[in-house]
Design brief:
three-stranded antiparallel beta sheet; 4 helices; 38% strand; 15 strands
């Protein structure tokens, strides 16, 4: 496989951000997805359900190294987000849960690449996209058969939430657990809440090692960029995961 295609396949491979092969270490005993039920919102406070039609996760993954010109920067999107949020009164906890199905990631859509701006002008072939997808969902990377979703959850005070602070957010990805800090912007209406985030993140913070070949001459940059937009609408009944 040419080096350029090799990087193309690996660059998007670990979605959210982990684009390289995972570190070699013993795999822990894990609960199969079929037995790991998604959490339900706590009772007693207004619950909001994520609207996938109005929500989006976009990842921008970058090439690096002296031979970076042989590779591509990548845009990876997902529009099938689901989950819930609970907004309590001021001074009480805000709770949230977000689920991202890995099979629904879209790699290098031409419109998305055009919108991403400088660094994304070149075309990525259909063959390269297909190879990237196979790598991304395979057992060595996201292992979609065993871990069909990325799960994000957390909680904070209502005051901190409205001020744009989530604190530590728990991320479950490909059997690994990580805690990251996410800066947000919040807009609340009578029956909906909008949350947006735009921030850099490191693959290593998620427990992955960036892809690298030729002693680092061609690699995927550890840092990538996350752009997230969530719109959640108030539910009459408690939100439940499908």
């Amino acid at each position: 496989m040419p080096w350029k295609r090799c990087l193309t396949c690996a660059a998007a491979a670990l979605l959210s951000a982990a684009c390289g092969a995972p570190p070699r270490q013993p795999e822990p005993a894990l609960v199969p997805p079929s037995e790991a039920a998604a959490p339900l919102p706590p009772p007693g406070a207004p619950a909001y359900r994520v609207d996938p039609a109005a929500s989006e996760l976009r990842l921008e993954v970058y090439r690096d190294g002296p031979l970076a010109r042989l590779g591509h920067d990548h845009v990876i999107e997902n529009h099938e987000l689901s989950g819930w949020g609970v907004l309590a009164r001021a001074g009480e906890p805000v709770r949230f849960y977000l689920e991202i199905p890995v099979a629904d990631f879209v790699i290098d859509d031409p419109v998305a690449r055009a919108a991403a701006g400088p660094g994304f002008e070149d075309d990525v072939s259909a063959d390269a996209k297909a190879g990237t997808r196979v790598n991304m969902l395979g057992a060595r990377l996201l292992d979609a058969a065993q871990y069909p979703s990325i799960r994000i959850s957390g909680g904070t005070s209502r005051d901190a939430f409205e001020a744009g602070t989530l604190g530590s957010v728990d991320v479950r990805i490909a059997g690994r657990d990580a805690a990251v800090s996410v800066p947000i912007s919040v807009s609340a209406g009578a029956d909906s809440v909008s949350v947006s985030a735009d921030f850099p993140l490191q693959q290593s913070a998620l427990g992955f090692t960036p892809f690298s070949v030729m002693m680092g001459a061609l690699q995927v940059r550890d840092e990538f960029h996350v752009r997230l937009r969530i719109v959640a609408r108030r539910s009459v009944e408690p939100a439940r995961q499908q």
